[in-house]
Each structure stands twice: as C-alpha cells, then as structure tokens.
Amino acid sequence: MKRGFDLFVVCLALIPALPIMLIVALLVRINLGTPILFRQRRPGRDGRPFDILKFRTMTDARDPQGALLPDDQRLPRFGRIMRSTSMDELPSLLNVLRGDMSLVGPRPLLMNYLPLYSPAQARRHEVRPGITGWAQVNGRNALSWEEKFALDVWYVDHRTFMLDLKILALTVLKVLRRSDISAEGQATMPAFEGSHAEELQP
Question: Which in 39, 45, 62, 114 has the greatest CB count within 10 A?
Fold first, then answer.
C-alpha cells in the first residue's frame, strides 16, 4: 500500500513539477554552472547503496591546497533559497519513482555513517529512506543527531498510512514557514561522529 501510494502521488506530482524543475535547472546552471544535479551515494533500505538526486546548491570553491572550503563558504544566497524552499529536493521524486526512496521515511545520510550507528540507531534502515520524515517535521536540523535518530526509529516502529499523511501535511507547513533549515551556527548540520565519539578514537 505504501509503495502504491508513493507511485500514485509522484506520478501526479511530476505533472506540475516537471516545468518547475526545468526552470530550477536553468537557474542552477546560471548561478552555479554545471553539473546541475548533485549525485551522491547514500544507504537505502537495509543499508543498500543508491545514488540520491538533488539540485546542486553549493559551489566547488577550494582553498589554495585544493581542498573544498567549508559548507558555509560554498553555500551562496541562491543555494540557501533553494534549501529553504526545498526546491533542491525535487529530483528526489525520481528516486521515489525508481524505488530507492519513499515519500516518507528516515532521511538517507552518508555511507560513512553506517559503522558509527548504535544497534538501535541502525534500525532506521529497516525501511526505505524518505524525502521527508518524522524527524524533519519535529525539528529537522535544529535537533541533535541522537534526537533525530530516536525519532527515525520511533517512525519505524509506529509507521502507518495515516502517520505518513500527517507527516506530508506537516512538511508542507514546514516548507512554507522555512523553519529548522540548519543547526545553530551551521550551514546545515555538523558531521555525525557517533553517539560515543570518544570511544571510536584509536
């Protein structure tokens, strides 16, 4: 039922979304150049990797040694607007169409976070990752990693069709209010280093 609902909504959404995506792609090309799409390997259900698709929001600015500058220095005003309106997420509808993601589920994070999760936190991968999720409508990037993962696992244990509808409705409100876009003092979120980072040091 969840997969059927995802396909139904995405197919309906792509009709009005396609011309918007073409306009956004043109704006990305003008403001940031190429590539227009951001592709990155992310873990899906059961940790299986897939390539997430988003519109690019950052520049490739580097320091004199050739290393990428911090996120806050590579995120221009155009990119901030894209993120605050969630326009950068539109290509992820194609991930839902392909079955890599669901409309609702824990957000797919980085592959190198996989060995850092506690057994409880790793349960977030028991379901398909989502474009939005329970953590996103309950604080998003204003939450700590531990709080976000606890909400993700709560969703895994309590997911229902009605809960998904509630999350989608709350997501629309969050986007309109442009709230909880980034952690305090960060362009997005600081890197996750494990819940017990001091125990991971050699």
Answer: 45
Q: Which two tokens stand for residue 15?
A: 């009709």
Dihedral angle of Cα 165, 8, 96, 27, to the nearest 10 degrees = -90
Q: What's the whole-number average pLDDT of the chain?
A: 89
Q: Is 6 exposed, middle or buried (0-12, 13-18, 19+ CB in 10 A)?
A: buried
* Mean local confidence (pLDDT), 59-64: 86
Query: pLDDT tens, 97-141?
Result: 999 999 999 999 999 999 999 999 999 999 999 999 999 999 877
Structure tokens at 118: 């506690």
Whole-prediction pTM value?
0.85
SS3 at position 102 = strand
